[in-house]
Structure to design on (226 residues):
């Protein structure tokens, strides 16, 4: 079945450092890909998405590019802030899998001043 | 504010109690979901409802009983839970079988004592 694998955390960075969180997927169809963020004590919020190969999703300085050839959707940000500290989830939705959302295990990011 | 509201935000219950979690959405979605988020475990899909009919039940113990009276409301009835059922329970909604994102509530933090 479809699945998502993302790098294990936790990740600790200093403010203004470059961030990469790796995500790869396995899918039978042509899924849409998502990054969600979960701040402490909150539910999941959509951060960005991409619906087809080579699409780039972006929001709040975060970016991720849908790479079909490497089945990847890595999350990047050029300069992280303390307020970016949260748990990040990579997810997919596959039309051949009823579009049920499949999530990675989550990566906890802590940004220190 | 994502448009999905869960109540209560926090719940402490004994193992012999009966309680219910409530979820409400007014986004015009036709699918609703319950997820369980435990510490150090991936997000677990528990139940999927589409057009008020259950379409997926991922082998969840019968002490969890969902109810979807209409497309805007979803309940999770709880009885005779175990301490290991303590977790964050997240509700989500989406447009079923469309390649779009799910919207999440803020979750109910459940503690079973």
């Amino acid at each position: 079945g479809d699945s998502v694998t993302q790098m294990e955390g936790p990740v600790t960075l200093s403010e203004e450092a470059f961030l990469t969180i790796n995500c790869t997927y396995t899918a039978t169809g042509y899924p849409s890909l998502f990054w969600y963020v979960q701040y402490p004590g909150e539910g999941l919020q959509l951060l960005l998405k991409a619906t087809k190969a080579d699409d780039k999703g972006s929001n709040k300085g975060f970016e991720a590019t849908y790479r079909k050839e490497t089945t990847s959707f890595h999350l990047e940000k050029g300069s992280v802030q303390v307020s970016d500290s949260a748990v990040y989830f990579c997810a997919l939705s596959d039309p051949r899998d009823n579009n049920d959302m499949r999530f990675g295990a989550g990566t906890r990011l802590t940004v220190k001043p | 504010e994502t448009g999905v509201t869960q109540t209560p935000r926090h719940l402490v219950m004994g193992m012999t109690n009966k309680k219910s979690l409530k979820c409400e959405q007014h986004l015009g979605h036709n699918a609703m979901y319950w997820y369980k988020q435990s510490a150090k475990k991936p997000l677990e899909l528990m139940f999927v409802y589409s057009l008020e009919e259950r379409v997926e039940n991922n082998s969840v113990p019968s002490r969890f009983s969902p109810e979807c009276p209409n497309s805007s409301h979803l309940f999770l009835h709880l009885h005779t839970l175990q301490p290991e059922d303590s977790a964050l329970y997240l509700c989500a909604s989406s447009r079923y079988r469309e390649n779009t994102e799910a919207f999440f509530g803020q979750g109910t933090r459940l503690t079973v004592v």
